[in-house]
Write a structure and sequence with these properties.
Length: 265
Amino acid sequence: MPVAGSELHVERRGEGAALLLIQGMGANSAHWGEPFLRELERDFDVIAYDHRGTGLSGPGEGDVTTAALAADALALLDALEVERAHVLGFSMGGMVAQELALSAPQRVMSLVLAGTSPGGTQSKPTSDDIVRALTFAALSRDHERMLRTGFSFIVSEPYAAVAENYATFAAVARENPASIQILLAQQSAIVEHDAYGRLRSLDVPTLVIHGTEDQMLSVINGDLIASMIPGARFEALDGVGHLIYWEQPERTAQLVREHTAAHAA
């Protein structure tokens, strides 16, 4: 679909209120995983798309920032003629969702921020050791090394220990992987993201979900976001890593379902 100077790949499934899914760094719409998407499509018109330059979307113009990606998301809603939607943003996608809700709150019925951060000096960034390990894996251009390294950091240790879990994840992740250039551009957008000073003004019903064993973005960040957004609810998933909807698709979908039901237009 032509959107904001690019051709964005979009998938829709299910019926009900619109639910826009915004993915994280390097990920595309397929990476939500079938178990999670099947749970959501029972209750929602699920709109999953690939960011510019990722998955099956075409390249975009201009700098890659969370605000620019939020503008893409808003333009996508316009193109689909969706006046208002529930919005779920994960990781970098949660940062994009923050920018979307801050810039166009009238378009967001409710907001779910999962495994993400407000940015700014008060947040806790990904550790330097993890960033180095991921960077070296990416620069090696060995895709299998990239997958195994990334998987070890985005899920909990017990989940990673089950060989079948990695095999399922890798089968999806091998399809349409993001380029090194896109990964670096999105990493820069994450580093530059700073909504810390603005979240107190956000007037959108918000649920914050975070795994307690998240190595990529500490659970401290989720707690911080929830403490700043007026009326926000914080739900910590005990023993779960960064990829909460992959480790616990049913529980994550149920939390989304409950939150959106309480704030249906």
